């Protein structure tokens, strides 16, 4: 199989879908790897590094997309890339289709086999290809929040950890999964006063055990969310219903009660966002805007800013699945691996992931009926 790796074109997306080690693994398995020139530069991999591992470097994206049987990316294709879609092309990347009707339409119309990293799911319900980037984004959310709480960045001028004799900041995290747990670790490490809200009683119990009473846990309901949002200096949105659009748990009237110069970091923006006042996706170039006096941060590719760490962490988990797809072909690979089958969102013009179909008003087709 020919595997193609285009350079990412999303704003400040410095990650790349393969490392030289991944190229070598595919070559050893008998495949060809075509990479767009300079695709790895943002992550510290040169064209020479890739050539040394056996890749063929191509000068433009059109050639990579045109020659490949399977395209591996990091972020969902952007509008200028939709023209490269074609019948039977395998696309293996983050997709986050629920808030992306135009992309979904293009994939359906062109019969692309679209396999989303973020919906591959193991029997224990974990999401192995989302986890490392959620670890990165969770940790980043606190350092970003701490920065924007500083006065020169428009914040209220609060140090997360306080100092002896002065109270620390209140960090409120909605969603206690991978992002939420990693955010909590960082916020506690910086000395903040941390509360995690989740709808799963079991998860709250686990968090209480993990953190040994160093943070507060709270059941998710509108009453509790309003109470905690009002007190938050830094509010972090970290909920997920796999594949589906994020629920808008924080309403506008709640944000209006936050004190001026507070900060919201909505990590769940890639699934449409969990905060009602977040009405746009922001970018690393222009990461924030102010509404009701509160700084809103809604960057959908946060890990792209720490690309070296993120590329290594991401490819640690993607390559095994990429090899299965390349070695067996997508059909046999998904028949043999139920976790990988959960990643298939679009095939033969049908939507095969229920959360995406429901969210965007398409008919849902079970995978076995679509292939
Ligand atoms: N913006 C970015 O650059 C990045 C965004 N993400 C996104 O962050 C989000 C969270 O990801 P993970 O932590 O890996 O997911 P996860 O599945 O590990 O955790 C989600 C948590 O949300 C909780 N939850 C669901 N509905 C809730 C509700 N109504 N109230 C309170 N809690 C609720 C679940 O019980 C679960 O504990 C996802 O949308 C993911 O795609 C992840 C990485 C990077
Ligand atoms: C999860 C995701 O979309 C990202 O890491 O950018």
From TrEMBL:
Domain Alanine dehydrogenase/pyridine nucleotide transhydrogenase N-terminal: 4-137
Pathway(s) served: Amino-acid degradation; L-alanine degradation via dehydrogenase pathway; NH(3) and pyruvate from L-alanine: step 1/1
Catalytic activity from the UniProt record: L-alanine + NAD(+) + H2O = pyruvate + NH4(+) + NADH + H(+)
Record bears the keyword NAD: yes
Database matches in Gene3D superfamilies: NAD(P)-binding Rossmann-like Domain (3.40.50.720)
CDD domains, per the entry: L-AlaDH (cd05305)
EC top class named in words: oxidoreductase
SMART domains, per the entry: AlaDh_PNT_C, AlaDh_PNT_N
Keywords: NAD, Oxidoreductase
Enzyme Commission number(s) of this protein: 1.4.1.1
GO MF entry, a single one: alanine dehydrogenase activity
InterPro entries given in the database record: Ala_DH, Ala_DH/PNT_CS2, AlaDH/PNT_N, AlaDH/PNT_NAD(H)-bd, NAD(P)-bd_dom_sf
Keyword Oxidoreductase part of the UniProt annotation: yes
Residue span(s) of domain Alanine dehydrogenase/pyridine nucleotide transhydrogenase NAD(H)-binding: 149-298
Pfam families: AlaDh_PNT_C, AlaDh_PNT_N
Top-level division of the source organism's lineage: Bacteria
NCBIfam families: alaDH
Family assignment from sequence similarity: Belongs to the AlaDH/PNT family.
Protein name: Alanine dehydrogenase
Organism the protein comes from: Tumebacillus lacus
Taxonomic lineage: Bacteria, Bacillati, Bacillota, Bacilli, Bacillales
């Amino acid at each position: 199989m020919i595997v193609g790796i285009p350079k990412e074109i999303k704003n400040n997306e410095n990650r790349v879908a393969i490392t030289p080690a991944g190229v070598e693994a595919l070559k050893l398995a008998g495949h060809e790897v075509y990479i767009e020139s300079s695709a790895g530069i943002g992550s510290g991999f040169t064209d020479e590094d890739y050539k040394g591992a056996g890749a063929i470097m191509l000068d433009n994206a059109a050639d990579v997309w045109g020659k490949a049987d399977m395209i591996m990316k990091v972020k969902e294709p952007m509008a200028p890339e939709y023209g490269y879609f074609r019948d039977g092309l395998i696309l293996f990347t983050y997709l986050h289709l629920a808030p992306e009707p135009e992309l979904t339409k293009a994939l359906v119309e062109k019969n692309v086999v679209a396999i989303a990293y973020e919906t591959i799911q193991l029997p224990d319900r974990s999401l192995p290809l989302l986890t490392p980037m959620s670890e990165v984004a969770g940790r980043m959310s606190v350092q970003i929040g701490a920065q924007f709480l500083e006065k020169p960045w428009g914040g209220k001028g609060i140090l997360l950890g306080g100092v002896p004799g002065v109270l620390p900041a209140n960090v409120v995290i909605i969603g206690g999964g991978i992002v939420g747990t990693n955010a909590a670790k960082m916020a506690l490490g910086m000395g903040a006063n941390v509360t995690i809200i989740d709808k799963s009683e079991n998860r709250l119990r686990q968090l209480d055990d993990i953190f040994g009473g160093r943070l507060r846990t709270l059941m998710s309901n509108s009453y509790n969310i309003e109470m905690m949002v009002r007190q938050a200096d830094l509010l972090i949105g970290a909920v997920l219903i796999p594949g589906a659009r994020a629920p808008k748990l924080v309403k506008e009237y709640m944000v209006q009660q936050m004190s001026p110069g507070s900060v919201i970091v909505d990590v769940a923006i890639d699934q449409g966002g969990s905060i009602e006042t977040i009405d746009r996706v922001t970018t690393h170039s222009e990461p924030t805007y102010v509404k009701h006096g509160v700084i809103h941060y809604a960057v959908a590719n946060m890990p792209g800013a720490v690309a070296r760490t993120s590329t290594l962490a991401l490819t640690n988990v993607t390559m095994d699945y990429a090899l299965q797809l390349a070695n067996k072909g997508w059909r046999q690979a998904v028949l043999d691996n139920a976790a990988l089958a959960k990643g298939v969102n679009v095939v033969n013009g049908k939507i095969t992931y229920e959360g995406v179909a429901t969210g965007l008003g398409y008919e849902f087709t079970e995978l076995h009926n679509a292939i």
